[in-house]
Structure formats: C-alpha cells, structure tokens
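Consider the following assembly input.
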Amino acid sequence: MTSEWPLWEVFIRSQHGLAHKHAGSLHAPDAEMAVRNARDVYTRRNEGVSIWVVRSSDVVASSPGDREALFDPAQSKVYRHPTFFPMPDEVKHI
Amino acid sequence: MTPSDRFDFLLRMGDSTLVLAQRLSEWVGKGPVIEEDIALTNVGLDLIGQARMWLSYAGEVEARGRDEDALAFRRDAHEFRNALLVEQPNGDYAETMARQFLFDHWHLLALKAMERSRDERVAAIAAKSSKEVAYHVERSTDWVIRLGDGTDVSHRRMQDAVDGLWMFAGELFLPDAVDAAAREAGVGPDLAALAAPWRSAVGAALAEATLTMPGDDWAQRGGRQGRHTEHLGHLLTEMQFLQRAYPDAKW
C-alpha cells in the first residue's frame, strides 16, 4: 500500500523559529492527509506552530555532479561574509 | 449527587477512554502504513492520558485508597463501566475507524457539555480532553469518508462496519439513574440531548461518504451498568496480565 502513496517533504516552523525547516518526509495519498500525518509524525513533542508539505517529486534539486561548478567558486572569498561590520546589539535575527 | 453516583459517573468516562485506548494499542506495529500506525497510537495515548485523569479522580471520590492503577488493573469485567461500543474488537481498518467515528462524535459532544460542569475537576478534564478529541473527530470522520467514498471494496467494508456497530452506539444516549443524578447536579451531560446533534454530524459524514445510515435504532445496552459483551474479558486478560501475575510490579 505504501508504494502506491506518493512521498511528501515536511517543513515545520517551530515555536520560536522564523522560517520553516525541513523535518523529514512521509507517505500520504493527498495533501490534506500529508499535513495530518505530518502533525502526528513530526509535532508530537510540541515542536511546531505551522506545517508545510510539498510533493517530493516537485522538489528540483541540484545535481551532485555539478557541485564543483556551483559551489567551489564561493570558497576563499571571505570578503563575502558580513563579519567585518560591527553589528548594533538591537539588531536581531542575523 | 451521592459520592457513589459520582464515582460511577467518573468510572464510565474513565473506562470508556481506557478500553478504547487498549483496543487502539492492539494496532501498534500492525497499522496499514507506518504514518497511520503512529497517528492511531497518538489517539490511543491521548485517551490513556484522559483515562488517567478520570480514574484518578474516581479513586479520590471513592476514598477507599484505590488509585488509577488499582482501578485500571485490579477490577474484573463486571466492575467496568465502559460503553459496549469501545470494547468491540478491532476487526479490519474500516471497523476500527467506524467504531472510532461513532464514539468520537459522542465523546466531543459530551466533553463540550461537561466543560460547563459544576464540578470543577470534571470541567477541567473536559476542557483539556476536548481539544484532543476535536482532532480525533477530524481524523476518524476523514477515514470514514475516504473509505466509504473509495473503492467498491472499501465502501462495502465501511458500510458493513457501520451496520455492525450501530446497535452499540445507541447506549451512549440512554441515561439511567446515575446519568440522571449527574445531570441534575449539573455535573454530567444530558445524554438524551446529545442524540440529535450526534445524528446530524454522523449523518452528514455518512452522506458525504456515500454510506447509508442504518434505519434500525434498536440499541444493545448494559456496558455502562457493568453488563458486557464477551469481548471485554479477553481484552482485560491481556491488559491486566502483568499486574495480576506480578502484583505491584514496578519498572
């Protein structure tokens, strides 16, 4: 039966989190039940305040073969990190 | 309301939630898919939590030194006050869900009424439980609709399940002297008044599920007075084994 149900990726926004984070995946026949299953599988310990589900087949991923071309050029470019600026204490969430 | 009536009233709530939780626990590791296995176990755990609150309070009212564990594990079938509906065997998934669906809709209405109970403990337990049960209602109703309005096989099985369990649902709305005492004291719900909203909620879901509401409303009663079907004894044998074989065992 499981093999007939599509796979869904689950994203949970936690109590104090600002963004939804990937929590895992599960099987469900449709979106409504995917949200319900996500509630039961991933928020049992009061982890979340909001749930997103996305069909796994709708996720477009980068190819591991393209890793060098995509990510190596960003190495050794420390000036791209904003660590050289003093940050006022009042500024949160950075 | 005499302490003895109040004790009985609390046992009825506690035993129905406890016995249904035990039934659901029989599905652990055997659910049709792992997500459903987890979800159904969550419902069972909610019900065990509720049973603990009802039975602890029952033990206090009885004032004979019995705590929730003594009440759960040291009573025999005729001392249990659960509704007949919840002790019925799991059967297939349609039967498990139909049983849950019929009970959940009654359970939510009863708890909503008890949120206004004059007994503060009862009101507090009802308020905490009704949030959980609102989710149980959503889940079981969804399954009844999915299976009823599903394939030919799932439709037939769900209709058979509803037909087979229907005669055990009526008891939930038939008050006896204990229920009357609880209602008059403003402690418990007016059971007879729950029948109309229950029929309308259950009827709407059955219609959406393309299922037929059974026409015969003859009700088998007795569970809440301690007269049970043959199934409860077997359930208790398994549930109580450890405390019977090793009294006061702890781990």
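The interface with chain B takes residues 1-2, 5, 26-29, 32-33, 36-37, 40-41, 44 of chain A (CB under 8 Å). Ask yourself how this observation constrains the way the partners meet.
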